[in-house]
Amino acid sequence: MAKRKSKSTTIYDVARLATVSPATVSAVINGTATVSPTRTKRVHEAMAALDYHPDHIARSLKTGKTNAIGMVVPDVTNPFYPEVIRGVEQAAGKAGYSIIFVNSNEDPEQERRGLQALISRRVDGALIACCDNSTATFDLVARRNIPSVFLDRVPLGVNAIRISTDNFKAGFVGAKHLIDLGHERIAIVAGRMDLSPHVQRVEGFRKAMQEPGIAVRDEYFRTGSLSSETGYQIGKQLLQLNRRPTAIFCTNNKTLLGLVRALAECSVSCPDEVSILGFDDFAWTENFHPRLSTIVQPAQELGRRGMEMLIQQIKLHDSGETNPPSAYETVLLEAELRIRESTAPPASVGLRVAP
What we know:
The chain is of the alpha/beta class. The chain has helices at residues 11-18, 22-30, 37-49, 56-63, 80-94, 108-120, 136-143, 167-180, 196-210, 228-239, 253-265, 283-287, 299-319, and strands spanning 68-73, 98-103, 125-128, 148-151, 162-165, 186-189, 221-222, 247-250, 275-279, 293-296, 331-333, 336-338. Mean pLDDT is 89; it is low at 350-355.
């Protein structure tokens, strides 16, 4: 098709060039009806030839739909969330939605303002990873009757649609791996106890320690902000104990970076002197020496499934239907234990000899 450009190109021009009806062009643009692949291809070719772009503002005024999804994340510098976002974008693109992002920077007030800004832009729905365990964000979207799905960090005790890693099981599996290697002096760097994932990981950790009767020593249980500096400071404290742990389970990727720095500064050999088990898996876990054993969350699947759940919520909202009670049960995705070189039996069990 010969390309020509006009500022006043309309849906009728596209229909004429594609030799279809205006209704067919509208159906292709809005996804409101099934159109054959052949006709869909002709419509897209005509739109490209005419440099035609739908007026989304005019369409939203007419339909009440913006085809935009708001997504609130607590920390875009945490490498876990970009992976989640990739999954969200994949599912959103297939369904014809665009994503508007808000980064709350772990600040509840910034989260509230960002969400209100999304609401003012009339997003069709919201995907939210909260910055704390408060129900304030849930209350805001519930009052406005906005379809929403909470992912990763989820509000508890309310009728929210939620999807998360099975963090209890992840904590249990991580601790059991270290116990099975023969460790008993196991420390945990547990993150923030006002966040549901960290609370649940600790609960799983404690359960695994309880089964063989291993005590969780107070000096081995550490919490703090989700930062590399926190991991570094806690790491130094643990490694300088008179009776230091033989294994450390770090439940957050940013604190893990600081812990690795502390190991190097204190000249402690891993895993000969201390085994390290981390959380989440990215390129840098392969680049450390030794390569780090980690609990791997299905980050992209979490984002994709969360977006698919939100699309279903939007459809229910538009049709006036309500959720069945089962919809409010948290969808849990299983994490994977990925064993590399940073976890091994302690020298004291006689299976290794430290240099």
